[in-house]
Amino acid sequence: MTTTWKSGDKKPSNNAPNNNTISGTMLSSWSRQQKLAMIAGFAILGLLLGVSACSKEGPKPALVGVSSPAPSSATAATAVTAATTPTAAALPARVRKTPKKRQANITYSDANSGISFLYPRKFALTSGDKAQPQLAAVSMNDVPMNFVQPGGVAVATVALPGGSYPGTDFASAFFNVNVNRSVSEQECARFAFVDTRNADGEPVDAEKVKIGSIDMEMTSDFSANAIKQAETQYYHRYENGACYEYVLGLSTEGFATEGGIEHVNRDEVFAKLEKILASAKIKPVETEHGAEPSIATIAAGKE
């Protein structure tokens, strides 16, 4: 049987490709490659995202290097204490009181007689009626005044502490002031009893001495027995219409050659008493009816 083709028709060829077939084949082929590419792309993208996420979540060495380390417990405690404790500027300033140093000497003054002098703080002072000095002497208790006329009044006495010279025969020592307004200037230059230390037993006339810049009349008395000795030195000066008498006394007791006891240095003791005498000053006073009862005041030096 013979097939007849028309001129308008085209004979199909087995070798000519079909468009639908080619398109389906190419689509099917590119879909597999695209899938593989897409899977690979997603895998790479997921890997990159994972790495990026890990890098963001992980520690940052650069930042750690510049940041401050976490405070230890001790540092934290210090910080808390510092935060809760007021600063030094906020605290009130503490005023430290410096203890005042006590002066070694005290000034004594008597308003009635005008007399004043310095004496060591450790010495004992008595004034007025109780100012009559005493010595551990041989035959007397109270040391007598040495005016040629009665009327003397005791002003003040300063006594050394009893234990001033341990290990010696020292018994007592004192500085005393008396005033007599009943004697004249000529009578003030004399004494009721004078120095009895003369080897011949005859009295020795008073002598003129200078204490500091002041001229005075001076005499002394000495008495002793086997175990007790007493020495007194008297100084007179006329001023303010009155005779001022200063008495320095020292007494010793015991056998200095036995039991390790030594003789006290008499010159040293009298030097201390003369230092008080040298500080004595007399301030002018006004009196209408002779001497009045003494009103003594003790004024401590600047403390």
Topology:
Elements: H1 19-57, H2 61-66, H3 73-84, E1 105-110, E2 115-120, E3 124-127, E4 153-159, E5 170-180, H4 185-188, E6 207-211, E7 214-224, E8 228-239, E9 242-253, H5 266-278, E10 281-282, E11 296-299
Antiparallel strand pairs: 1-2, 1-11, 2-10, 3-4, 4-5, 5-9, 6-7, 7-8, 8-9
Question: Would you give an account of this structure?
Answer:
There is one protein chain. By secondary structure, the protein is α+β, with helices and mostly antiparallel strands. It has a domain at 111-285 and 292-299: Sandwich (Jelly Rolls), CATH 2.60.120. It has helices spanning 19-57, 61-66, 73-84, 185-188, 266-278; strands spanning 105-110, 115-120, 124-127, 153-159, 170-180, 207-211, 214-224, 228-239, 242-253, 281-282, 296-299. The strands form two sheets. It has a seven-stranded antiparallel sheet, with helices on one face. The protein has a four-stranded antiparallel sheet with strand order 10-2-1-11. Strand 7 (214-224) and strand 8 (228-239) form a beta hairpin. The longest helix is centred in the N-terminal third of the chain and has 39 residues, at 19-57. The radius of gyration is 60 Å and the shape is rod-shaped. Mean pLDDT is 75; it is low at 1-14, 61-67 and 289-303.
